[in-house]
Specification:
It is a single chain. About 35% of the residues lie in helices and about 20% in strands. By secondary structure, the protein is an alpha/beta fold. It has 2 domains: about 5-35 and about 190-270, Rossmann fold (3-Layer(aba) Sandwich); about 35-185, 3-Layer(aba) Sandwich (Rossmann fold). Helix 3 runs parallel beside helix 4 (about 95-105) and helix 8 runs parallel beside helix 9 (about 240-250). The chain is globular, with a radius of gyration of 19 Å.
């Protein structure tokens, strides 16, 4: 059965997923709920590159963290494809981020990421893969983005206890030093009137919303304040994202792993 899908991922991944859904026989529309942009000043990222040999590992929170980190790489920085077996490890929480690292030349032997059969792709799953590597005194770099409000101010980080903060706490408990570097900015999109009408329609017409970020749901609430979501359906790619969708009021929420194949299975279950 053909259903209309609302793909809310960041571009260009949103369009790539929409194209795959179209090829599977579904009507997929792109309606990104997060926009990303480069930093006005990438001095800290360039410094992190030059200090990279001092780190036991560099962990990336997303594909965009990888792309913007490499975008700011100084010419004099060590090349990942030339790294030795004793060099910095490269950590990712899921396949998309892992593929981005490989695309940028990271040696596969130095890459740590949850296996394909993992129940979830997140910091908790990554920790199971890397915890045995960490020794007291090690330094770990976490490459992330900052959330920015429409007026340009930084948004308070609400990631305490989960995600990268959860991983940072596990590392500190193991005696490691954790440093953060911001490689990019993300924020809410500015919708056109037509996009607002599309979203309002998709709240009641049986469309299935695809969410891969709890932050995106916060932006949706701000873009359509007061919208009734009780008739809306969603597929979420993590328990925390599913909880955020239910909290916003979505009437039907299915949770799945963040792979195209698993998302398609969840879509079919709702169709």
């Amino acid at each position: 059965m053909t259903v209309r899908l609302i793909v809310t991922r960041v571009q260009p991944q949103a369009q790539q997923w929409a194209d795959s859904f179209q090829a599977s026989g579904h009507d997929a529309l792109v309606l990104p709920l997060i926009e990303v942009r480069s930093l006005a000043n990438a001095t800290a990222v360039r410094a992190a590159w030059l200090n990279l040999p001092c780190y036991k590992a560099a962990m990336f929170v997303s594909r965009h963290a990888v792309d913007f980190f490499f975008q700011a790489r100084p010419a004099s920085a060590p090349a990942p494809e030339l790294s030795s077996a004793a060099a910095t490890r490269w950590w990712s929480t899921g396949p998309g981020t892992a593929h981005a690292l490989l695309d940028h030349g990271v040696a596969s032997a130095l890459l740590d990421t949850p296996p394909k059969q993992a129940g979830q792709f997140d910091s908790e799953a990554l920790w199971q893969q890397v915890r045995a590597q960490v020794r007291p005194g090690d330094k770990v770099l976490i490459v992330r983005g900052d959330s920015v409000a429409p007026d340009g101010t930084l948004v308070q980080d609400n990631d305490q206890g989960v995600g990268r903060e959860w991983l940072a706490e596990r590392l500190r408990q193991s005696g490691a030093q954790v440093d953060f570097v911001v490689a990019y900015q993300r924020g809410a999109p500015v919708w056109t009137a037509a996009q607002c009408v599309l979203a309002q329609s998709a709240a009641t017409d049986g469309s299935i919303w695809l969410f891969s970020s709890a932050e995106a749901l916060g932006h949706l609430q701000a873009l359509l304040p007061g919208q009734d979501w009780s008739m809306a359906r969603a597929v979420a790619t993590h328990p925390r994202i599913a909880a955020a969708a239910r909290s916003l009021g979505f009437g039907v929420v299915a949770q799945t792993r963040p792979t195209l194949e698993d998302v398609l299975v969840s879509i079919e279950s709702l169709a």
